[in-house]
Amino acid sequence: MNAHRSITIETPDKLYRTGVKGPQAAQWLADQGIALPDNPNSWLITHDQLKVLRLGHSEYLLESAVQHPLFAQIAEASQPMAAGVYRVPRTDAAFMLGGEGIMSLLSEVCALDLSEQSLAEDGLFMTLLAGIPVIVTRQTISHLPAYRIWCDGTYAAYLREILREIADDFSPLCSEF
Amino acid sequence: MSTRLPQQAGEWIDREQPLRFSFEGREYAAFEGDTITSALWANGEKALGRSFKYHRPRGILSFANHDINVMVTDGVDTNIRGDVVKVRDGMQLHAVNTSGGVKKDRNRYLDAISALLPVGFYYKAFHTPRQLFPFWENIVRKAAGLGIVNFSFPRITKPKLHRFCNLLVVGAGPAGMAAALAAAEAGLQVFLVDENSELGGSLGYDHAAGSESRMLLADYLHRISNQPNITVFREAYAGAYYTDHLVPVVQSSGITKVRAGSVIVASGAFEQPPVFRNNDLPGVMLGSAAQRLIRRYAIRPFEQGVVLTANTYGYRVALDLIAAGVKILAVVDLRAGGESGNLHDQVAAHGIAIHRGSCVYEAKPAADKLSVAAAVICAYDEQTNSADTRNAFEIPCDGIAMSAGWAGASGLLYQAGTKMRYDDSVQQFIPDNLPEGVFAAGKVNGVFDLQARIDDGVRAAHLALRHLGKPAQDIRAPVHTGSSPSHPYPFVPHAKGKNFVDFDEDLSLKDFSNAAQEGFNNIELMKRFTTVGMGPSQGKHSNMNAIRILAKIRGLPVDKVGTTTSRPFFHPTPIGHLAGRSFHPHRQTAMHTWHKNTGAVFTAVGAWLRPAYYQTAGRSKAENIQQEVLAVRHHAGLIDSSTLGKIEICGPDAAVFLERFYTGSFASQPAGHSRYALLLDESGVIVDDGVVARLSPELFYATTSTANAAAVFREMQRWQQIWQLDIGLVNVTGAYAAMNLAGPQAQAILSKLCPLDLCDTGFPVGAVRETQIQGMAVRIIRVAFVANLAYEIHTSASDAQPLWQAITAAGSPLGLRPFGTEAQRLLRLEMGHLIVGHDTDGLTNPYEIGAEWAIKMEKDFFIGKRSLQIIQKKALKKRLVPFMLANPVSSEMPQECNLVIAGNEIAGRITSIAVSPSCSQTIGLAFVAPELGTPGTHFRIRTDSGAMVEAVVMTIPFISAKEES
């Protein structure tokens, strides 16, 4: 973990990920016994600690700290997996951003309002962060906002570098009463 | 001589923090909080800079961020605005745009010959004779500009932040503060932006010798400081307005892009100078500038002077000057009816002569011409706008305060799309029809009475509340009563001119009539011919007067003349601010660390960092590249191709989709085979190319060029939205890695690692196989891009590095070495392959590169087909041909983009050129006129130095399979 003043940038321990998409993806996952978020651009954690992110209407990112049996099933399936169901290999990099100064850092790298007024705890944004496509979710940890960021793994070094650079020399712009 | 006043409440300086600085080599004392201008003025200096064109001495005009004749340099930065930039201890300052300093500027002679340099002079004078133009250009370029750009200026990263609020209020004067408080008290999150270091606007300086404004300001500041819903941005200007209430707020530390639910523009108004001879002399200043000097910096503007006015405000200025100890010798009112009421009576009670229907005919300079010495007063006819000098008299004085009117600070409103109208009751353009969610309040809205401005701010806040769906009151807009705050035509003609309209560009009244006589009699043309409003203050003190002059010349109402276009940014903004941190995203492949540890020198290709070549000890870059090429030709090479775009197209309609998307045929493509894929846009221009491999009846695997990967996938998605086929598109560019094993030993190396039949019949060019290498799932495509024998091996990103190392280990004994993009470009050139985007451009069609074979016109449809049907009926204009230099290069090597010359005409250009170690020749590709395209035809290339080099058209490939061993 790298702490920069009041900003923390963590890289979560090894996590397993896979994805499925397609018009029948929701039904296919439900048939496998996976609980799904009701709304597009939202997420949940299942009873067996599988994180399920619904990306738009018909794409799902699945993440787990352990090798969930479903992951092997998806990996070994042919492509298409079934009518209207397609495997999406995921090699994302993930970051956890937190600390008192996190909103300041995010305000420099993201054009969207990531505050609680805009991004609910079960919601997610697919947006650009420092110029690259990411998925963002927000949580509250110890009364402070914390953000999970997923990006394509090939951007990981760049994103880590730019976040550290900003965290190092960030200074608030506005004077507030 | 110090003109500093005793300490007073509300001043912006800290007398406990004295500091020293130098200006033009002389030391001065100042206080923390002083601006450069205020500090110099307090020390009795009045000539603070020289004007842009005629190098006339200038002092304070607006003292509000628009005194562009008072710009200084500290040796590092330049064009520092003296009127607003705070002086710092130890500063060593010099005025810009002088030769020999402000007081003895050697270029001041230009003022004496100004009659020879009228508007339009430059346009007309230097056209002929043409051969002399470089001479004049050199002189004009040296004379142009203000400060000298410091090319060694350090790059200081300025952040660009994004912030969000319900309501953005621009301007923290009485209207803005009232609006912010009303909205915040109703629960809105409010950003309040003001360009000054302290809030309050005119409440802080326009007191008319009373205490009402000061008390009101104290109350507002207290309420705002206790209002948690208000965030204040000081020393910040709202630089522009963009769609959906996006407003960049600029501070010295950077830009904050504010996205607001609603915007209230309460930006006030710029005081406008009346126009009379020598109205630019140091000591002649706007009334509000004099008030700011007094209240903010505790400085007496001058000792004895005259107030020239044409509105009520001038009387308030007079009272403030009197309170500051200035001896007012006369109030000169342009209006025949003058002023009546309390303010007039207060001024008169001081025994001051008030001259109605009079004007300052001219300001007379002191002997050194560096300050004003007297004002010449005479009668003025408002109807004819003429001065009657028969009874003119002279008042010795060291200052003239001017208050003749205002122009709304309405730049943001214009940018937002506000329809404005000219209101005769206030002689000002005011909003007529505002865009949704944008509101105006205060002076910019044509409201000048203090209480009315406050009411207007509250009204605007309630409109914003309603816009945001909150409960709101209906508040009637204030209606202006009484005399106009602005004079309709505050101009005093003078036979000798020098009555300035635009202080940035040294434009005087006659320049406008001259422009009109030349035919530039519409406001946009007049602006460009005279350059009015094109200086650093962007017309904030000149545009309104220019419009009035033009209206007068043409005999039109001001409304009919219109205004020029207001564009972002509203105020000059440093380029460093606009650049911000400059994000340059880059991607790294799974083998990046291996490349780095093996001496790779990286280059950016699209968003990716790729090895350009691998540095080995004792070899130059060229030698390394040549060695990599030779390794591929004679042994084997391995290049990281992970950067290729990789897309899976799956589903029952996958083949149908590809048939429509690419020019080739895919419906008939058997599983286990790949085909060349050429992508056009709808105008038939080549966009990209790649390979499409069919892995199963419902699964195709397409590769795209590195640079176009994202664009091609985006296009696929867009067309799928239109076509609605039964397919899925999966972008696996990042999830899969790829590497290209090439060269005569490639088959032998691969055979060590996988069980496939790799012979030419078992695995021919174009075949694709799915297998495993050391337990890692791979897709292998037999390709022939850089060598006749090559395998493109695709695997998951997580398996890529072990796979790369396995191949490297297997290949090392057979001479395998990694190669980079530099060698790849040369290798493909030897093979005669073009690179889309490198050897083609944004207009190239398939016929020009000889790609007819890749187009299946018999298909019902593919993107670009209809355009190709038209294009193919027309004669070719150019053709891409392979060439070889006819003779060995003895001196200058031709470069890419050098022109092909036929006769004396340009007949094409080089797109690729390189020395081929395999051919021992210089080879390349070039666009040439079709008649030059036959093999054996000679053409000439003009090098950078102009030398001509002979080339001959060849056939491809430049090398044959037998040369690879």
What's a quick, concise take on this entry?
By secondary structure, chain A is an alpha+beta fold. Chain A has helices at 25-31, 69-76, 102-109, 156-169, and strands spanning 2-4, 7-10, 16-21, 42-45, 51-55, 59-64, 86-88, 92-98, 124-129, 132-141, 144-152. Chain A has 2 domains: 8-13 and 92-176, Gyrase A, domain 2 (2-Layer Sandwich); 16-88, 2-Layer Sandwich (Alpha-Beta Plaits).
Furnish the topology, listing elements before pairings.
The complex is a heterodimer of chains A (177) and B (965).
Chain A: E1 2-4, E2 7-10, E3 16-21, H1 25-31, E4 42-45, E5 51-55, E6 59-64, H2 69-76, E7 86-88, E8 92-98, H3 102-109, E9 124-129, E10 132-141, E11 144-152, H4 156-169
Antiparallel strand pairs in A: 1-2, 2-8, 3-6, 3-7, 4-5, 5-6, 8-11, 9-10, 10-11
Chain B: E1 14-23, E2 26-32, H1 36-42, E3 49-50, E4 57-58, E5 71-73, E6 80-81, E7 92-95, H2 109-112, H3 121-125, H4 133-143, E8 160-170, H5 174-185, E9 190-193, H6 212-225, E10 230-233, E11 237-238, E12 246-251, E13 254-265, E14 269-271, E15 284-286, H7 287-297, E16 304-309, H8 313-323, E17 327-333, H9 342-349, E18 353-355, E19 358-365, E20 372-381, E21 386-396, E22 399-403, E23 406-408, H10 411-415, E24 419-423, E25 428-433, E26 438-440, H11 450-467, E27 500-502, E28 507-508, H12 509-517, H13 523-530, H14 543-554, H15 558-561, H16 575-579, H17 592-597, E29 600-605, E30 608-614, H18 621-634, E31 636-640, E32 645-650, H19 654-661, E33 673-680, E34 686-696, E35 699-704, H20 709-723, E36 728-731, E37 736-742, H21 746-751, E38 768-773, E39 776-783, E40 790-796, H22 797-811, E41 816-818, H23 821-831, H24 865-871, E42 879-885, E43 899-902, E44 905-916, E45 921-928, E46 938-942, E47 948-953
Parallel strand pairs in B: 1-7, 8-9, 8-13, 9-10, 13-26, 15-22, 16-17, 16-22, 17-18, 31-41
Antiparallel strand pairs in B: 1-2, 3-4, 5-6, 5-7, 11-12, 12-13, 14-23, 19-20, 20-21, 24-25, 27-28, 29-30, 31-37, 32-35, 32-36, 33-34, 34-35, 37-40, 38-39, 39-40, 42-45, 42-47, 43-44, 43-46, 44-45, 46-47
